[in-house]
């Protein structure tokens, strides 16, 4: 017997991925509903071999569903997630609205599955930031083996992390460069085509951006608050797939060969690490895949107990839609999804 599932924000990039992944992983679905704002009433989306039509969130009865996958803005989620949770279903929210709420678990199933036991406090589970999700999948098994002391991360984040408008801007600007047309930025603060932008989100008083702060705050919540983490987030002209250059300092020795074997056995990780000119993964190859890929694992000769590695994943999948569906699978496996009465 399957569940009744609602996808809120079903017309967006991540919402559509959620629908696709529910089918890909054979999540037990009896009924599926696409929900969005009034502007999207009647918009057609696909699930399995059928078309479903968006319903307005204002009119939708959430008491008839068991689990809700949310891909909306933080402000929208702040308004709607508590209302939906009070009607019974567990909300798995992809926005930043609930990640640091002490009564809301922030979950990556490969990293902290036991935190799902806290889900009924507010009937909300938070999905981490896309760049954090892939990072913690790679860090957690190493932290378990040789406690992590400090991490230095530089991200190379694709434009799809900024939604459809980001993808459209890269596409339009790229065409414009070749036709000598205008390339004025709209979604991004500067031209993204054939460029990189060392700024994502908004500046905090300390000079870091809120995107960078999300990564260390969320890593602390999911793995260990004692880990020192510093981040520089960069937007790059790639359509899909986030990459990260990661330097890790451990409290005890862990060499590259040990790390490689640990990561090969870790859930959700695929190691592609050969010492040749094609022995690594790029975001293009990670696109459409479920795994977090780790390459370029090597000792850091400049400091003791340190390693470098390269971490790549599809940000629309593991960084967003896939992780949300995996949380739903985790709840199903642990018997935490209560079926609503017909």
* Helical stretch tally: 8
Encode the helix/strand succession as letters.
EHEEEEEHEEHEHHEEHEHEEH
- The CA-CA distance between the termini, in Å, is 13 Å
Q: Largest sheet, if any?
A: 6 strands, parallel
Write down the oligomeric state: single chain
Provide the gyration radius in Å. Answer: 20 Å
- Total domains, how many? 2
Number of strands: 14
Query: What's the architecture of the largest domain in CATH terms?
Result: 2-Layer Sandwich
CATH superfamily of the largest domain: Dihydrodipicolinate Reductase, domain 2
Strand order within the widest sheet?
A: 5-2-1-6-7-8
CATH topology of the largest domain: Dihydrodipicolinate Reductase, domain 2
Shape: globular
Strand content: 15-25%
Secondary structure class reads alpha/beta
What share of residues is helical? 25-40%
Low-pLDDT residue spans: none
Mean pLDDT, to the nearest integer, reads 96
Please, could you describe this protein's structure?
It is an enzyme of class 1 (oxidoreductase). Belongs to the aspartate-semialdehyde dehydrogenase family. Phosphate binds at residue 99. With 342 residues, this protein is of the alpha/beta class. The longest helix has 17 residues, at 317-333. It has 2 domains: 3-128 and 320-333, Rossmann fold (3-Layer(aba) Sandwich), CATH 3.40.50.720; 131-315, Dihydrodipicolinate Reductase, domain 2. The chain is globular, with a radius of gyration of 20 Å. It is 29% helix and 23% strand. The two termini are 13 Å apart.
